[in-house]
Amino acid sequence: MIRIVTRAQLARLEDAARTASEQARQTNAAANEAFSRHVRELWNVTDRAERAEATTTEVGVLLSGALAELSDAQQELLRKDIELRRLREELSRGPVEGETVTVLMHHGEPHAVYASREAAHADTTTHGYPADHVWTPCDERPAAAFTWRCEAFTYNPASRGFHRANRSVPRELGGAA
């Protein structure tokens, strides 16, 4: 079969080919632009995801530290609650005959009251007194002559109060009437 092609048909075919080629170029450019947008968007999403992951890790570390601190605080609170209950029970029962408390005196003035002499001695270390100080019984000098002095007081139910446990023996006054 023989086909006759005229110049006009050839011109139309060339024009259609140029139009198709231009459309293909524009479509290719649009596809490249869309691909570039998608790559940039993917890059941004990946960056945000990596930052979110790093933040999540950091928050996880902070949270685990906070949980450890919370656990320690709860343990301490429980210990203090137990001690508070014990002290309330002790307070509600009141003093018992013969019970002794120790008064820590500073230059003869009462400073604090303690359940034991050891607790009073330990408190003087918080005020600058040496921890390894050897405590000796006080002589007959007045309490004001000592920087720190511990006095024991014993509960007497008859008088409903505490009285000095170590009462000094009165000295004979030579020749006084």
General description of the model:
There is one protein chain. The protein is of the alpha+beta class and 177 residues long. The protein has two helices and four strands. It has helices at 7-93, 117-125, and strands at 100-106, 109-114, 148-156, 161-164. A four-stranded antiparallel β-sheet has the order 2-1-3-4, with helices on one face. A hairpin with a 4-residue loop joins β3 (148-156) and β4. The protein starts with 6 loop residues before the first helix and ends in a 13-residue tail after the last strand.
Distance between the termini: 166 Å
Order of helices and strands: HEEHEE
Task: Count up the helices.
Answer: 2
Low-confidence stretches: none
Structural shape: rod-shaped
Spatial extent as radius of gyration: 47 Å
What class would the helix/strand composition place it in?
alpha+beta
Instruction: Please give the share of residues in helix.
Output: 40-55%
Approximate strand percentage: 5-15%
Strand order of the largest sheet: 2-1-3-4
How many strands in all? 4
Query: How would a crystallographer describe the biggest sheet?
Result: 4 strands, antiparallel
Overall mean pLDDT:
84
Note the quaternary state here.
single chain
